[in-house]
Design goal:
Layout lengths: L1 E3 L5 H13 L3 E3 H6 L4 E3 L6 E6 L7 H9 L1 E3 L6 E7 L6 H10 L7 E6 L13 H23 L4 E3 L11 H11 L5 E3 L8 H5 L5 E4 L2 E4 L9 H5 L5 E3 L20 H11 L1
Parallel strand pairs: 1-2, 1-4, 3-5, 4-6, 6-7, 7-8
Antiparallel strand pairs: 9-12, 10-11
Helix pairs in contact: 1-5, 3-4
Bound molecules: flavin mononucleotide and iron/sulfur cluster (2 copies).
Length: about 270
């Protein structure tokens, strides 16, 4: 089984690739947290893959919440592995995840870093099309190796890219992430006409249309940045800033979900 959290589709696309090679169901971590469903039913000896993005060198808050409460039903030896998708390195995510798993009396057997395009585009410049294509191509090759490692039940830190993280700054990164998760940071421009795309999209079910505009109804979220990247009218701002670009992985939502219209309308307002 694979359990996935994904804001813009990179992790979901990795999950789909692993699933097509190794089989098993894909579960949505955000949905499970929303429903307070922490039970994971596995077949005897079935491996469990956790696939999600790295946020400020940490694991997403929803993933932490889920893993800390996770209850695996069934006996047998469950090989537990994680694939951290990130733009430059997984930072403290492996130790972060291991600590969360410990709270459920579970252990991480293996983990992998998968470098993918960056979706945090409020403060950072967007990657150019060539870099995005190169990263996606390299990720496909890397995934083939990861799938082989999982098939062979290899353990430990495998082909891991940590990135430029000073170990003494772990707490600082955690605090930055936690502060950034405040939904007060979100606002909409006059281009928000209350189309409802973000309300349907938000994996944590936080955005509601009120008085014809998107409104954030909880104090914090995991900061997947899906709403910022996918709003069809590029109407969402963060900390008073419009993102410098938009990114989503094409396999996340099929064109029928409205992304084709997104790109059309985006040109008008950018
Ligand atoms: C709030 C936030 C913080 C991020 N922090 C990091 C980071 O510390 N290191 C990194 O390499 N990538 C970072 N990223 C980039 C994402 O991890 C990367 O683009 C990921 O593949 C997105 O996955 P998704 O498309 O499944 O949501 C960050 C993205 C967001 C939204
Ligand atoms: S997707 Fe954009 S335009 Fe549509 S309701 Fe949300 S913020 Fe407004
Ligand atoms: S409010 Fe936006 S950034 Fe936060 S979880 Fe929902 S879609 Fe993601």
């Amino acid at each position: 089984m694979l359990l996935c959290y994904s804001g813009t589709g990179n992790s979901y696309s990795a999950c789909k690739t692993i699933q097509s090679a190794l089989g098993g169901d894909i579960g949505d971590i955000a949905l499970r947290v929303n429903n307070e469903n922490f039970t994971v039913n596995l077949e005897f000896n079935e491996p469990l893959g956790l696939v999600f993005p790295v946020y400020c060198g940490n694991i997403p808050e929803a993933v932490r919440k889920f893993v800390e409460n996770m209850d695996i039903v069934n006996s047998g030896q469950h090989y537990i592995y994680a694939v951290f998708t990130c733009s430059s390195g997984c930072g403290f995510a492996p130790e972060d995840l291991s600590s969360a798993l410990e709270k459920s009396d579970l252990m991480l057997d293996a983990y992998f870093t998968l470098l993918m395009p960056n979706n945090a585009l409020v403060y950072m410049e967007p990657e150019d099309t060539y870099t995005i294509e190169q990263k996606l191509e390299a990720a496909d090759t890397e995934l083939e190796a990861i799938i082989e490692d999982v098939r062979e039940r290899r353990t430990g830190a495998i082909r891991t890219v940590v990135g430029k993280y000073d170990p003494s700054e772990k707490e600082k990164h955690r605090n930055t992430y936690n502060k950034s998760r405040t939904t007060d940071n979100f606002s909409v421009t006059e281009f928000c006409g209350g189309c409802g795309f973000c309300e349907n999209f938000c994996p944590e079910d936080i955005i509601k249309i009120q008085n014809g505009k998107a409104t954030w109804t909880k104090d914090t979220c995991s900061l997947c940045m899906g709403c910022l990247n996918l709003c069809p009218y590029t109407a969402i701002m963060y900390a008073g800033l419009r993102p410098k670009g938009r990114y989503h992985n094409d396999v996340f939502y099929p064109k029928s979900a409205g992304i084709a219209m997104t790109l059309e309308t985006k040109r008008e307002h950018d």
